[in-house]
């Protein structure tokens, strides 16, 4: 991969969606540069020329000239173009489509629901316990779906007999869900054993560990910036 020009990954220091792409690019040893788009710059020029939806991730690949946004589409692109040996994917049916299925579920059933749980617990201006309960319940329901599927998987991975992008795609939001639930004194450890084993295996991967640590550092910095802002106004 050394002859490749680095792919530009437009991301965020705490946003989980770009970090999914960061993990996959690094696991595949693809050169890339993770450029941070500050939240206040996302919905305006020049970033909306890259993603009119004003969200991250987006990529620009100088090797092919493509600009792409939406994490599911980006993962499919990376696999088609840069995982020819199928280190983290499969090229044949049914696994190829099963990977797409788990990615589709991640984008529609994990990210938005977990994101709302974080929003209503940490950000929303008023405390709406019924909204928090709804999204936390959904986080547990999704965990039970993963556990049920993994209980029937001889390899302990979501698709086939090896770890793929389908697994890596889920880990960052699962780590955030576990952290969020710990703030609420919810501990599901032991209730979903197949999930627990899968979660631990993923979290032990050096690249996943590094990206989780990067996000923790980013969170600390943004809490510090918020505290400084409050202190300035006081
Ligand atoms: N469906 C999109 C979701 C992207 C998304 O919501 N990204 C967050 C960061 S993790 C974002 O850009 N938030 C900024 C905003 O909503 O203004 C994807 O999977 O790429």
Strand content: 5-15%
Hetero groups = glutathione
- Tally of separate helices: 8
Low-confidence stretches: none
Structure, briefly:
This protein is an alpha+beta fold and 234 residues long. It contains 8 helices and 4 strands; from the N terminus they run βαβαββαααααα.
Please explain how this structure is put together:
The protein has helices spanning 16-27, 47-50, 71-82, 95-123, 129-151, 165-183, 193-203, 206-233; strands spanning 7-11, 32-36, 58-61, 66-69. The protein starts with 6 loop residues before the first strand and ends with a helix. The chain contains eight helices and four strands, in the order βαβαββαααααα. The mean pLDDT is 96. It is globular and about 60 Å long. The protein has two domains: 7-82, Glutaredoxin, CATH 3.40.30.10; 95-203, Glutathione S-transferase Yfyf (Class Pi), Chain A, domain 2 (Up-down Bundle), CATH 1.20.1050. The chain has 234 residues and is an alpha+beta fold. Helix 4 packs antiparallel against helix 5 and helix 4 runs parallel beside helix 6. Helices cover 59% and strands 8% of the residues. It binds glutathione.
